[in-house]
Design goal:
By secondary structure, the chain is mainly α. It is built from 18 helices and no strands. The longest helix has 35 residues.
C-alpha cells in the first residue's frame, strides 16, 4: 500500500531526520519536568529499573505499531485509519481511532503550551537574576505571581503558540525537519553541560546511587503502575504524533531500528535529566520527592544559591523550552495535516486555524490557576479535567486500540510487509508483545488510573 504512495505533505530526507523528529516529539516536559519528580516520589533506583523494562516491552512495541500504521496510510491519522481499514476489509468506524488521536493532541497542546510558557517566562527570570539569593518563600512568590496573573500567562502562552505554528507552517522539511535538526542537538549539548556541572558542583555520587541503586523495599504497586504509565506516555504514543511522523518515513527505513533508537534516545534524555537535577537537589539539601514543583519552585532555589547559578538556571530553562517546542510541533501536526487533506486549505491557513483554536482552548487552563481556580467539577479545575481526560483516558485508550488493530485486525501479511521483516522468531516475539502484553499492560494502567484498583 505505502510502496507506491508518498504523503502529500512531504517526506523526511532520511532515517536520521525521522529519528531526530520522533525523538523531539517524545522528548518533552515529561522527560525533564515529570520524570525526575516521579522518580523522586517513588524511591529512585527500583522505579527507574521498572520504567526501563516497561519502555522495552510495552513502549517500543506500540511505537512500532503506530509508525507502521502511519507509513502504510501516508495521510493524517484520521484518513490513515480510514484507508487502512478499507484496504483490510474492516469497519470504517476504525477512522475514529484517528479522530481520537487528533483530538487528544489538540487538547494536550492547549495546556502544554501554557506550561511551556512558564518555561519561557523562567528563562527571562533566570537571565535577570531573579533567583539570586532568593529564599524558599521568595521563589514560591515568583511562581505564584506568574500563575496568578492571567495576562502574563496569556502573553507567554501566545508567544509559545506562535513559535510552534511558525515552524509547522513551513512544512515537513523546511519546518519540522529543520527545527528538530537544531533543537535536538542543542538540547543534548545543554543537557550534557548541565550533567558536567552536576558532576563538578553537585553531590553526583548521591544522585547516581539514588537513581541506579534499586531499593525494592521502596517499590509498591502504585510505583510499578506509575512507571508503566509514564513509559507509555513519554514516547508520545496514542496522540497521532508518531503516526503522522511515520507517514513521512521513507519506505527503505527499518521501523524496528528507528523505534529502538528513538526509545533509547528518549530514555537517555530522561536519565540525563535526572543526573543533572538530583546531584543539585542533594547538594542543596532539597527534597527529591518535591513533586511537580521540583522544576519551577525547588530548582530555582538551588540556582539562586549555587556558583554560576544565573548561567546554569538560564541554560536549564532554555533546555526545557527546547524540549517543549520539539514536542509541540509534533502534537499539532496531525490536526494541520487533516485540515489540508479534508478542507483543502493551504498549510499556512491550516496552521492559523489549528493554532488559533488550540490557543483559545489554552485560555481555560490559564484561568484555572487564577480567576477560575474556585470553579471545579468533581473537585477538578478546567485544567485538571483536561489533564485527567487525556492522560488517564484518551492516551491509554489510543495505545490499546493501536495494539488491537495491528495485532488482531490487520492481516498478518500486511504487517510483515510494512515492517519489512520475515515471519520468524523475532516477529513472533514482537507480535506476542503487541498482541497480549502491551494491551494487558495498558488496560491495567487504565483501570488503575480511573480508580478501580486500590
Amino acid at each position: 500500500m505505502s510502496e507506491t504512495t508518498q504523503s502529500i505533505h512531504g517526506q523526511w530526507s532520511g532515517k536520521l531526520a525521522f529519528i531526530l523528529a520522533a525523538t523531539g516529539s517524545a522528548v518533552g516536559l515529561g522527560n525533564i519536568w515529570k520524570f525526575p519528580y516521579i522518580t523522586g516520589e517513588n524511591g529512585g533506583g527500583a522505579f527507574v529499573l521498572v520504567y526501563l523494562l516497561c519502555i522495552a516491552f510495552i513502549g517500543v512495541p506500540i511505537m512500532m505499531a503506530e509508525i507502521l500504521l502511519g507509513r502504510r496510510g501516508r495521510q493524517s491519522p484520521i484518513n490513515t485509519m480510514a484507508s487502512i481499514a478499507r484496504a483490510e476489509g474492516l469497519s470504517p468506524a476504525w477512522k475514529w481511532l484517528g479522530v481520537m488521536g487528533v483530538v487528544t493532541g489538540f487538547i494536550i497542546l492547549s495546556y502544554y503550551s501554557v506550561i511551556a510558557g512558564w518555561a519561557l517566562a523562567y528563562v527571562e527570570r533566570a537571565v535577570s537574576g531573579a533567583f539570586q539569593g532568593a529564599n524558599g518563600e521568595q521563589v514560591g512568590a515568583i511562581f505564584a505571581n506568574l500563575t496568578g496573573d492571567w495576562e502574563k500567562q496569556l502573553a507567554w502562552h501566545t508567544v509559545f503558540m506562535v513559535m510552534t505554528m511558525l515552524v509547522v507552517a513551513r512544512g515537513v522539511r523546511g519546518g519540522l525537519e529543520r527545527a528538530v535538526s537544531i533543537l535536538m542537538p542543542g538540547l543534548f549539548v545543554i543537557l550534557i553541560f548541565l550533567v558536567g556541572y552536576a558532576v563538578a558542583q553537585g553531590d553526583f555520587q548521591k544522585g547516581w546511587h539514588f537513581m541506579f541503586d534499586p531499593d525494592f523495599s521502596r517499590l509498591n504497586a502504585h510505583a510499578v503502575l506509575t512507571a508503566m504509565g509514564h513509559a507509555f506516555f513519554t514516547l508520545s504514543l496514542g496522540m497521532g504524533a508518531i503516526m503522522i511522523y511515520g507517514s513521512y518515513l521513507p519506505k527503505n527505513v527499518s521501523i524496528t531500528r528507528v523505534s529502538f533508537t528513538v526509545a533509547v534516545a528518549d530514555t537517555v534524555v530522561a536519565l540525563l535529566a535526572g543526573l543533572a537535577i538530583f546531584p543539585i537537589v542533594f547538594a542543596n539539601q532539597l527534597e527529591p520527592g518535591a513533586g511537580p514543583g521540583l522544576v519551577f519552585q525547588t530548582l530555582p532555589l538551588a540556582f539562586g544559591q549555587m556558583p554560576g547559578g544565573i548561567i546554569i538556571g538560564t541554560l536549564f530553562f532554555i533546555m526545557l523550552t527546547f524540549a517543549a517546542w520539539s514536542s509541540a510541533i509534533s502534537i499539532i501536526e496531525p490536526a494541520v495535516a487533516w485540515l489540508v487533506e479534508k478542507v483543502g486549505v493551504t498549510r499556512h491557513v491550516a496552521c492559523l486555524l489549528a493554532g488559533t483554536a488550540t490557543w483559545a482552548l489554552g485560555i481555560g487552563t490559564i484561568l484555572s490557576f487564577n480567576a477560575w481556580s474556585d470553579k471545579t467539577w468533581l473537585g477538578k479545575t478546567f485544567f485538571d479535567i483536561l489533564d485527567y481526560l487525556t492522560a488517564n483516558i484518551l492516551l491509554p485508550a489510543g495505545g490499546f486500540l493501536i495494539a488491537i488493530f495491528v495485532a488482531w485486525m490487520m492481516r498478518r501479511q500486511s504487517v510483515l510487509e510494512e515492517l519489512n521483516v520475515k515471519d520468524g522468531p523475532w516477529f513472533e516475539f514482537w507480535h506476542f508483545l503487541i498482541r497480549f502484553v502491551a494491551p494487558a499492560a495498558v488496560v491495567i494502567v487504565f483501570v488503575q488510573a480511573i480508580g478501580l484498583l486500590g
